[in-house]
Design brief:
Strands 1, 2, 3, 4, 5, 6, 7 and 8 form an eight-stranded mixed beta sheet that branches. The chain contains 13 helices and eight strands. With about 300 residues, it is of the alpha/beta class. It has one domain. The protein is about 45% helix and about 15% strand.
């Protein structure tokens, strides 16, 4: 990642506190097995800059970027990776998933040191009109022989309740053996484009390729791989104070949803990343304007 972009992310997306937090009287989510993480955005225009510029790193592996012209990469990413259509109506443009997905990419990469296993852009099929299927991030941490797949989800809406509903209505599917296996098989289709060679997940893919009758989930268990499921919620700041913007998310989940266990048979953890932002629609419209005016990406 460009150092200029790293610096902008560090300056703009600011860690506030973990949940539970006794000091502000806010519990963690009833779904979370780990502490929830709370961030703020110091400037909405800088957040839009991060989204616009991170399209490149989100769409391509590092070895695809090196030595290339950023303007060309940006254009290719929009046309060939993100299915951006300049001819559709504005209200349809602001519904594109990449606005939030690139921020999830940045937070996992910079704040959690979770490197992309493979660029999310590989999973886009330019011939399909539907949203790209699968998890919103494919990151990985390998440390002292332990492997964690950071396969996450993001929702970026004005309404925090809409984002919560969208995530929690589908969380049973996301945290299931069947869905995880489907996503690992999808990664296999791009095995030669993995960012991290020699990883445990690469071994799983090689073993399955050699013997496709085995279950991928059993190979994941064999190599003691853990699924980490971070859920990034970005939503409109109601200007009633930062703590209130965090608390209303936790309170809504507790009031409207029941805690549960999931069918996933491997070790897993779940936590929320909460990021209230100022003027959601304006942020997205700024990015759209820069895309269509072909603003030069930062170096």
């Amino acid at each position: 990642m460009r150092q200029s972009l790293i610096d902008l992310i560090d300056e703009t997306i600011v860690y506030k506190y973990d949940l539970p937090n006794a000091g502000v009287g806010i519990l963690k989510s009833i779904y979370s097995t780990e502490n929830d993480k709370c961030y703020s955005a110091s400037d909405k225009d800088d957040l839009a800059e991060i989204i616009y510029n991170s399209i490149i790193e989100y769409s391509f592996n590092e070895f695809d970027i090196s030595g290339k012209d950023y303007q060309n990469l940006h254009t290719i990413a929009l046309k060939n990776k993100l299915k951006y259509n300049p001819d559709i109506e504005e209200e349809s443009k602001i519904k594109y998933g990449f606005f939030g997905e690139v921020i999830l990419y940045c937070i996992l990469f910079i704040m959690f040191k979770s490197k992309p296993l493979i660029a999310r852009g590989y999973f886009y099929n330019p011939l399909e009109n539907s949203e790209t299927k699968g998890y919103d991030s494919y990151h990985l941490i390998e440390n002292n022989g332990a492997t964690e797949l950071w396969f996450g989800e993001v929702k970026f809406h004005i309404s925090h309740t809409q984002g919560i509903k969208s995530v929690l209505d589908n969380i049973d599917k996301a945290l299931s053996d069947t869905y995880l296996e489907k996503n690992v098989v999808a990664i296999h289709n791009h095995k030669n484009n993995l960012n991290i060679s020699g990883s445990a997940i690469e071994t799983v893919l090689n073993n399955w390729e050699a013997n496709p009758s085995i279950k991928i989930i059993d190979e994941i268990k064999k190599h003691k791989i853990k699924l980490v499921y971070p859920i990034l919620l970005m939503y409109e700041d109601d200007m009633k104070g930062y703590d209130n913007n965090i608390k209303k998310v936790i309170d809504h989940i507790q009031a409207k949803y029941a805690s549960k266990t999931f069918a996933l048979s491997i070790n897993y953890s779940v936590f929320f990343i909460l990021l209230p932002v100022e003027k959601v629609k304006e942020i997205k419209l700024s990015v759209i304007q820069w895309i269509e005016s072909k603003k030069r990406p930062m170096l």
